[in-house]
Amino acid sequence: MLTDLIYPPGCALCKQRLSSASHIICPSCHTLLFPIHAPYCNRCGATLLSIQDDCLACQGRTFHFNGTRVGFVFDDSIQRMIHALKYRHRPGIGYYLGEQLGKIVVRESWISHLNKIVPIPLHKGRQRERGYNQSEFIARGLSSLTGIPIHTNSVIRTRHTRSQTTLTPEKRLVNVRDVFLVPNNQELNGCVVGLVDDVFTTGATLDSCSRVLLESGVSEVYALTIARA
Length: 229
Ligand SMILES: [Zn+2]
Ligand SMILES: [Zn+2]
Prior knowledge:
This protein has helices at 2-6, 27-30, 76-87, 91-105, 124-130, 134-146, 169-175, 204-215, and strands spanning 67-72, 116-119, 156-157, 180-181, 192-200, 220-228. It starts with a helix and ends with a strand. It is of the alpha/beta class. It is globular, with a radius of gyration of 17 Å. The structure holds zinc ion (2 copies).
């Protein structure tokens, strides 16, 4: 952002002046981000007390994606950063969080199998309104750290869905059914895709998008998100 160069924003969390305009948060706020470590549910990314535990959130649910890795605990700091990323025109926060997620996922065994990183698309009306797709910025940061190429041209969102936050899990599934399309599968055919969204809530959006990707010829999908609400 040009305005960022003229008026460098302070730390996204404490507003303190930053030593460089390229930084997003200050070193002390950086220590307030809590990465999710094992044990966690391989299907939805939720933290578990022990690796033998069955994930309560996944009981009775099946997903089209093969697994999920979530970067951070959904605490006040992460919530504020994601809010600024989505509603305060701070796409750089997405790039930064994507890099931080990258530092966590590079240790996963399946990461080397990913061929493409694909952000969940926004509907074009929503993207015009916001000026950017926040998930694409997360994906770019993740791509820069892992070296896995980002791909944004194959999946489209056919309609804007109602905000998911007030819906029950069942209604969320209906709300996002058939909202994604893959009009052109050439670049993703046979690929293992890392599908990026900002927050994993019920997994309905990621699942719906994974289903169309798999139907279009993608071989496997792994969900990657900054946090899990
Ligand atoms: Zn700070
Ligand atoms: Zn789970």
